[in-house]
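Supplementary Text 2. Reproducibility record for the structural model of the 273-residue chain.

All settings were left at their defaults, and a single model was retained for analysis rather than an ensemble. We include the record here because the model underlies the residue-level annotations in Supplementary Table 4.
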Amino acid sequence: MNLRKKKQPAPEPEMPFGPVDWWLLALLLLLLCVGLVAVLSASGPISQRTYNESYHFFHRQLQTMLLGGIFVALLCWIPRSFINKLHYWGIATVIVLLVLCLLIGPVINGAQRWLDLHFMMVQPMEFARIALVMYLAYFMSSKQSMIREFSRGLLPPTLITLLICALLVLQPDLGGTIIMLTILFFMCLGGGTRGWYLMMVLVIAAVLVVALIIVEPYRWARWTAYLEPFANARGSGYQIVQSLLALGSGGIFGVGLGGSIQKTVYLPEAHND
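Retained model, structure tokens:
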């Protein structure tokens, strides 16, 4: 009787460039191209007035797209096991960056959402979204045995998300807070969290957002302007009125690429809006 143990086959090395989801890649490229065309269409007048060059913001958007593509291609060469080890470091880094925004970040339009690196402005919120997705993806995939438990499966990711949301609220950035809560909900939904717990997350998020709207006068003004924009058409309801005028003048098919009127003199930040 042979009692010798059989040798286990050596694990195959983790190869870069795994199977490509071509549909997802196609949708990503489509969204990028639509955004690029939208920037080209909307930014011409303000670019000409500010920089005496109609394609300034278009060129900057295109450069950012290309840099992002290079970064994604480089990430494809990094083994997933290595990326999974970075999730806690990513969360810690964005928390530090968000705190630095509140301490030394410049105040722009009443908010401290950026860090001035002298050669460029950085908004940590953009990195916070990536870090949160990386953390939640690792948490949901590695802790499937307890994902349906409240104390070990729902509470840790919820507390980390709420910590990031609290720092965003202090900037203030309600839109970023809503994005973070939305990421938490859908990652929990995809990860297999109990439906009852998901309802709790929805209720907490709704109560938090409503409370943040009520306590800040400018947010409440925006909400009431959304309900009755023409009551203050030159004030809090200005942008909503302009959007309605744009839809009314363009109809279903619009006025043609680059032909809108609102971007010329009616919207002060058309390339952002």
